[in-house]
């Protein structure tokens, strides 16, 4: 038999064998496809449920114990109330090239339509929802399907960013995740990526400058992913990243500055590790260690791996968290904020490498446990705090408009209250309810659009927390030494406060309601606070308390 005939017969037999194998394997493939579809549907259903549950506390609790919540709400209320002569006498409000404007920009067209507190809640919820949705998009792009590690995203809802109330930063991170998802989906089209980063980066710049830094670090990492590891790679990736974000980078020199000496702080790096889990109590620290240990075991045991496209971006973010200062001027928790955003991206980057059902079951159980802890926190901390704030606001009616009010706080941490900072800015509710002057409202050149009028600037500060009572006593009638200390700490706005302020709100937490009877008269004592009127001669009161005449200070 000719060799060609033998080869032809062999090819025919081989083809028949392949076809038969395909026929035999078709049911198996269909079963596997059905199983994958069923598993994907289950994951998406659980994910949607977890996401909704994680957002409900931010939407439903009237007064959440978020540190900067009341302060931000007061700033938005002032922006919508400048037609009031009392408010205009104390504040002005001017937009500019300020890289911290997310809530203000959203609030501007909604003045009189949506209240400031509700708007902040919607921004928080929408920002988290953008992260959740973008995480699903990124996994679909990189892995073809979402996986169980996506369930960890809603479990991180209570973190340092949301607990402290870095609302503008959170909104910027939400947009950054949308940008990152779009970049990964179009990463083979370089000019599209450049256009997306320049336009998206411009918006993120105005939302928050640290969110822009996060987005740039991730995009820089994606540039590294496609290059060989050497010095030329770093230079090329750097040039491409700068070109991708050229428009927002051109705005940096235009940001106003107070021309103060640069102050950097590198303390608290260890705290940054736990910032994605720590919100209102110390319990999540141990849970964070367990979660990290389980993830590392899964990766080392080859049950999970980091998607190749996000390895370099995560390395870049890790270096950024390590080397970025914790504090720059009055901006704090910079490394912790970056760590929270990096944690979201880390869990998005993971995918299982085995069909072992223990992996998705474990991810679901850990996520459910963390969300359950968050709900316990709502019941044990958020709701009691909400009732306290309701009591507090009911007592503010005795404060007259444009009264200058100083906040003093006993140390609640000594009483085992880990969320002590939630009380720092409660006086901002008096700004909204009674139109008083609160020196702790956020403002500052290049930082906020809120500007204090000249008559009130001597008793104002860009950013501060309530004074401890012992320190307040020292600077009420200061010696040269205590005055020097106050100026060093930035508390010079409160020097000789009995001569300049009208009322004191003292958060005493069931201690004596009047820490300085010689200077203060008790006018109201609540369950955790007291309202005190400053004792002053009429001459001093007239000199330090500007009166309104036709909307103008006289």
Condensed summary:
By secondary structure, this protein is of the alpha+beta class. It has helices at residues 3-60, 69-79, 85-90, 102-107, 116-143, 152-155, 160-164, 167-185, 190-207, 209-225, 231-244, 246-251, 269-274, 283-300, 311-323, 334-349, 358-394, 427-434, 469-476, 480-489, 497-500, 538-544, and strands at 91-93, 264-265, 304-306, 327-328, 350-352, 405-409, 450-452, 503-507, 520-525, 530-534, 548-549, 552-553. Helix 2 runs parallel beside helix 18 (427-434) and helix 5 (116-143) packs parallel to helix 8.
Largest sheet report: 4 strands, mixed
Q: Note the gap between the termini.
A: 118 Å
Average pLDDT number: 85
What is the 3D form? globular
Number of helices: 22
Strand content is 5-15%
> Helix content range of the residues, please?
55-70%
Number of strands: 12
Derived structural class: alpha+beta
What's the Cα radius of gyration?
Answer: 28 Å
Low-confidence stretches: 538-544, 547-554
Count of distinct structural domains: 2
Instruction: Provide the spatial order of strands within the biggest beta sheet.
Output: 6-8-10-9
């Amino acid at each position: 038999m000719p060799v060609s005939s033998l080869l032809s017969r062999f090819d025919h037999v081989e083809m028949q064998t392949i076809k038969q194998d395909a026929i035999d394997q078709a049911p198996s493939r269909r079963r596997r496809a059905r199983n994958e579809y069923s598993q994907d549907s289950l994951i998406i259903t659980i994910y949607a449920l977890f996401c909704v549950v994680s957002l409900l506390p931010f939407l439903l609790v009237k007064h959440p114990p978020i540190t900067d919540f009341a302060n931000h709400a007061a700033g938005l209320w002032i922006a919508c109330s400048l037609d009031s002569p009392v408010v205009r006498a104390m504040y002005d409000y001017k937009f500019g090239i300020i890289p911290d404007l997310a809530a203000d920009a959203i609030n501007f067209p909604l003045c009189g339509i949506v209240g400031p507190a509700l708007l902040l809640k919607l921004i928080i919820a929408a920002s988290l929802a953008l992260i959740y949705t973008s995480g699903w998009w990124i996994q679909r792009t990189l892995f073809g399907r979402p996986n169980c590690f996506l369930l960890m995203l809603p479990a991180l809802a209570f973190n340092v960013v949301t607990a402290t109330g870095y609302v503008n930063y959170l909104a910027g991170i939400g947009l950054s995740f949308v940008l990152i998802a779009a970049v990964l989906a179009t990463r083979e089209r370089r000019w599209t990526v450049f256009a997306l980063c320049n336009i998206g980066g411009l918006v993120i710049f105005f939302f928050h400058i640290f969110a822009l830094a996060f987005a740039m670090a991730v995009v820089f990492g994606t540039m590294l992913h496609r290059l060989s590891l050497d010095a030329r790679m770093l230079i090329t990736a750097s040039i491409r990243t700068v070109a991708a974000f050229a428009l927002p980078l051109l705005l940096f020199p235009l940001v106003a500055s107070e021309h103060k000496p640069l102050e950097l702080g590198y303390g608290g790096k260890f705290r940054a590790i736990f910032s994605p889990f720590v919100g209102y109590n110390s319990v999540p620290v141990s849970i964070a260690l367990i979660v990290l240990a389980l993830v590392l075991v899964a990766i080392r045991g080859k049950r999970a791996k980091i998607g190749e496209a996000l390895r370099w971006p995560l390395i870049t973010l890790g270096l950024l968290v390590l080397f970025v200062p914790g504090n720059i001027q009055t901006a704090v928790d910079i490394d912790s904020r970056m760590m929270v955003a990096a944690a979201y991206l880390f869990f998005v980057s993971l995918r299982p490498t085995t069909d072992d059902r223990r992996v998705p079951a474990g991810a679901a159980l850990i996520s459910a446990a963390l969300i359950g802890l968050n709900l316990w926190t709502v019941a044990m901390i958020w709701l009691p705090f909400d009732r306290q704030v309701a009591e507090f606001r009911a007592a503010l009616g005795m404060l007259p408009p444009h009264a200058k009010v100083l906040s003093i706080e006993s140390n609640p941490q000594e009483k085992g209250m880990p969320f002590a900072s939630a009380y720092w800015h409660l006086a901002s509710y008096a700004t909204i309810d009674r139109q008083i002057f609160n020196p702790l409202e956020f403002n500052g050149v290049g930082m906020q659009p809120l500007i204090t009028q000249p008559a009130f600037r001597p008793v104002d500060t860009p950013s501060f927390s309530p004074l401890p009572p012992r320190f307040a006593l020292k600077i009420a009638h200061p010696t040269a030494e205590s005055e020097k200390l106050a100026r060093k700490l930035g508390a010079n706005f409160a020097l000789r406060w009995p001569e300049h302020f009208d009322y004191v709100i003292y958060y005493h937490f069931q201690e004596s309601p009047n820490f300085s009877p010689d200077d203060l008269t008790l006018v109201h004592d609540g369950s955790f606070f007291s309202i005190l009127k400053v004792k002053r001669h009429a001459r001093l009161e007239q000199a330090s308390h500007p009166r309104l005449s036709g909307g103008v200070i006289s």
